[in-house]
Please model this.
Amino acid sequence: MVQHNPTTPFTIPVFDLMHRPGEMREKTLDPVLDDAMGNAVIGVPAGAPLHIDVRLESLHDGILVSADVTGESVGECVRCLIEVRQPLEVDLQELFAYSQDEAFDYDVHDETIDLEPVVRDAVVLSLPFQPVCQEDCLGLCPQCGARLLDDPSHEHEAPIDPRWAALAGLGGLTGTSTNDVAGADNDDATEEKR
Model:
């Protein structure tokens, strides 16, 4: 059972709805986050505002909360590591029970409900696991770290095979002289056939 702190910006008093099935009320919340909501790559940072449109409906077992949460998530592209800003839109629905029964995850506490744990869970689950700046992001060059979208024709010289690296210093051999040597071998072979 989740215990609630009745003093958060996510707290809504529901004394006028309790034990009155069929009653309904709508409310708007604009909390500023004390702590960040998200994962290691993307989230809603601390100090950022959220906008929450809430609909509260009284039922026999508790208060049914339906909410639309909007805001902005900030993170970094997992391919090229630049900043990513994405709009956040989450719909949620949860029952806050009157009784503190283990069958319910949340309950009405001191005639109030605290939406923070419900909103936090919904926001974190809605965030992308691997955010990208755009779908066709090419990422970073594995050799120098340059962002490939900034320079699509970015190339490096082909690496020299380490087995042939010692021969790279020999400047006397060129493609022409190698052909001459190969041609000389062919001439010798032709003469032997005669």
Notes: The first strand starts at residue 11 and ends at 13. The CA atoms of residues 1 and 142 lie 48 Å apart.
